[in-house]
Amino acid sequence: MSIERIAVIGAGRVGLSLARAVVRSGRAVAVLGRHAEALPEPLEPATVVWDPVIAAADLVIVAVPDDAVAQVSLTLARSGVVGGRHVVLHTSGLYDRSVFAALESSGAALGSWHPLQTFSLLAGEPGALAGSPAVIEGDPRALVTGRELADLLHLRPVIEIAGDRKASYHAGAVFASNYLVVLADIAARLARDAGADGVSAELFLPLMRRTLANYGTGGVATLTGPISRGDADTVARHLEALEGSERALYIALGREALRLAAASGLDPHAAKTIEQLLY
Fold first, then answer.
1. Nearest to residue 128, comparing CAs of 269, 17, 37?
2. Which of 122, 145, 161 is the last residue of a domain?
3. What average pLDDT is seen over the chain?
4. In the 8-state DSSP scheme, what is residue 194?
5. Nearest one of 43, 21, 246 to 119, comparing CA atoms
6. pLDDT (tens digit per residue) in 229-242
7. What is the chain's Cα-based Rg?
8. What is the mean pLDDT of the segment spanning 159-186?
9. Which of 124, 144, 161 is the last residue of a domain?
10. Model confidence band, residue 197 (pLDDT cutoffs 50, 70, 90)
11. How far apart are the first and last CA of the chain?
12. CA 27/CA 46 separation, integer angstroms
């Protein structure tokens, strides 16, 4: 199909990022919400009268929080406005097409389209989409439309995964993004405890940027630090300095680091010594 008219349900960060990117692409878009609120230019205000907009749309994108997707699906099914000519995609990284169970009898092509990116601005960040991966699954026609949407908004690569693997994939996204912030905050807190109060928030950012850049080119072979070197004394002193949840997290991540280091050729005796500290 050719995407000409798109309806985006949800005026949150993802929905507005998508809607604003669609406008930039030259296609028609309408944002549907619970309130007739003003939206960032050049978007028209959100409309609360959904049926005529959805009836005219080729593609309906449900960009609401994960826990609300099924309810929106039920609302659409009760309206009777979604039919066989429609493609309906949701942007949840967790759920697959089965969350649209209420729409099964509509004949619409159903699927999921997850832009693998973080959006922090309430007004949306359309520029963050281009160059980001798109992870898709669903009915054959939904997959075709998902790829067309990704091409329209310049997302790449496009990765198709099985619906029953989405929870695992989404957990990976949480580690890569959400927990990266958690780790950065723990590092800053430890720096403050050590006396670097004025610069603690920024202190480790150059190190983190360099580490991610190295990983992007060399993968796990770029692992550095005391465990990769087999420096058991350093690990022991870290454990003495830490307590509570910080110590528990250090141990959990240390075990993973040890696994990677051992697979990369860490001396078995050094690996065994560190293992005794972490278990």
1. 17
2. 161
3. 96
4. T
5. 21
6. 999 999 999 999 99
7. 23
8. 97
9. 161
10. confident
11. 56
12. 17
pLDDT at 54 > cutoff 90: yes
16 pLDDT band, cuts 50/70/90, is very high
Query: Helices (DSSP H) in 103-158: which residue ranges?
Result: 140-152
CA-nearest of 2, 12, 4 to 32 is 12
Range of the domain at 20: 5-161
- Structural domains of the chain, count: 2
The verdict on 145 and 92 lying in the same domain is: yes
Residues 198 and 76: their CA atoms lie apart, in Å, by 52
20 and 43 co-located in one domain: yes
Both 30 and 151 in one domain: the answer is yes
**Rounded CA separation 158/198 (Å):** 42
**107, 38: one domain:** yes
pTM: 0.91
Inter-residue contact 36 to 45 (CB < 8 Å): yes
pLDDT value at 6 more than 80: yes
Cβ contacts of 168-177, under 8 Å, gap ≥ 24? 169/93, 169/135, 170/93, 170/94, 170/114, 173/93, 173/116, 177/118
Does 86 lie in the same domain as 182?
A: no
Alpha helices, DSSP H, located in the chain: 13-25, 51-56, 69-79, 140-152, 166-173, 179-193, 200-203, 205-218, 226-229, 232-241, 244-263, 268-278
108 and 32, same structural domain? yes
What's residue 178's pLDDT? 96
